[in-house]
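Hey, weird one. I pasted the Oxidoreductase sequence into the form twice and got a warning about non-standard characters only the second time. First submission, copied straight from the form history:
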Amino acid sequence: MAMKGNFLITGAGSGFGRALATEALSSGCSVIGTVRSEAARQEFGAMDPARARAIVLDITDFAAIGPVVAQAERDVGPIDVLINSAGYGHEGTLEESPLEEMRRQFDVNVFGAVAMIKAVLPFMRKRRRGHIINITSMAGYVGLAGIPYYAGSKFALEGISEVLANEVRGFGIKVTAVAPGSFRTDWAGRSMIRSPRSISDYDALFDPIRRARSEKSGQQAGDPAKAARAILKAVASNDPPMHLLLGSDALKLTRDKLNSLGKEIDIWESVTTSTEYA
């Protein structure tokens, strides 16, 4: 797929971010990737000395994001596509997981993404073009037991993406929320934060979930390189989707959820409509 333009990809050191950077470079684009260390910066730049540039940035350092984006616009040129890929998973039942872990989860997965969006929007709005891609998750549609903080952050990013799309459509800016299923990234491995167990009442429910997720890490059906190519198809489209599911598991679970939700709405319709003034 031959493409042109400048991509800004967060979390470009690994996972979907690295796969997206690799695919964008091979498609002829220039890529600015955010990474977490100087070693990662040098490694990323070596991918293509002419078109790959990495910036060391912690996306929870919200005050630093604006100047970094402005500098990238000056040094590299207009950012045509922002891909918010940085993020991580938190695993643990809600009752057992410290509230501080929820704050950290939302700082990275939600506030960091929004801060990046707010930094690029003035430039895209002035040019009346651009595309913002937010990597969410099938957990942003389906409330899977054992990852309440992660699911909450992805539900939030799905909603924010949809509202943003409606706000900036008139400026020629496109927004797509991409919800992957299970892919062979480090999400369930070294990138996963796991709260320790403390309440035996959850053993029967949660212990098999934690064990299965750990055992499945590295064996998932999803190929990150194919996901990257699918996302670039959306970027290249004149009419990209507002929501894009990736993976057969994401498709099945989301369809099951929507069907169940529709049935529940129908069952409770009389109660729903009974709340208005006569």
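That's the output from the first submission. The warning seems to come from a hidden character in my clipboard, not from the data itself. The radius of gyration is 20 Å.
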